[in-house]
Amino acid sequence: MKDFRVQDRSLIAPLPFAGRPAAHPVPRSNMCLNGFLASARPDPDHFAYALIANVRLLKWYHRDAEYRRYVQRAEVVLAAGRASAWLIRQLHGVHVPICSPASVTNLLLQISRPTDRILWVGPAATFDAGLSSRGALGYCGRGLAGCIDFIENNEPFRFCLLALSSPEQELVAHDVLMRGRARGLALCVGPGYGCTR
Asked: Are 151 and 197 in contact (CB under 8 A)?
């Protein structure tokens, strides 16, 4: 288990910002994304998920208690760009790696083996040829319950790309985690992730 799970799931104590402490700490892992993905075993024994936060999602995080639970249960939180990384650093004193959804997908394809099971959940138009050539199993049906069923019915998997809109993708990942029936690593990459080749 230790070679798959991030060891430090503690919450960061918020640092002062403009004279006031941040109201809600952001989860931080002790591993960068590369190490987190590379440590995911082909036969995992639990489920975990990673989020890529943009500015809009950070607004939801501070305004919506339910969405905040989704973020706080994530194993890894990354910044989608410089603006979100800056905001997290200013509000919480945490240096979060910047990693675009496209770079996450490319890294996944580089480190996975041809025999690894990869799942993809999202609109059919976003199912990338790189994933298709790797034999990824895709689900483009409607409804969050169908997404959850697809993930649980195809476990264990090494990776599952959640290419849904937010907060739906975070809700799916959180519900799969809470139900405890799946094993593998999910990555919330959003509907427009794409690969760069």
From this structure: no
